Amino acid sequence: MKHKWAGRFSENIKDFGGYSIGKTLSLLKDPEIISLAGGLPSPRMFLSGDFQSVSRKILAENAEKIMQYSAIPGEGSLIGAIREFLKRDAIDVRDENILVTTSGQHGLDLLGRLFLNPGDTVLVDRPTFAGAIVAFKMQRPRFQGNDIESDGSDINGFRQKMDTLKKEGHPPKFIYVVPDFQNPSGITMSLEKRKQLLDLSYEYDVPVVEDSPYKDFRYFGETIPSIYALDQQREGNHVIGLYTFSKLFCPGIRVGFNIGPQAVIEKMTNIKEGNILNTPKYNQDMCTAFLTEMDLEAHITKCRHYYREKLDLFLNTLNIHFPEETGVSWTKPAGGLFLWVTVPEHIDTQILLSDAIKFKVAFVPGAVFYGENPKKNHMRINFSYASKEQLVEAVKRLSECIKKYL
Ligand SMILES: Cc1ncc(COP(=O)(O)O)c(C=O)c1O
Question: Of 8, 157, 227, 388, which is the most buried if we count CB atoms within 10 A?
Answer without folding.
Answer: 227
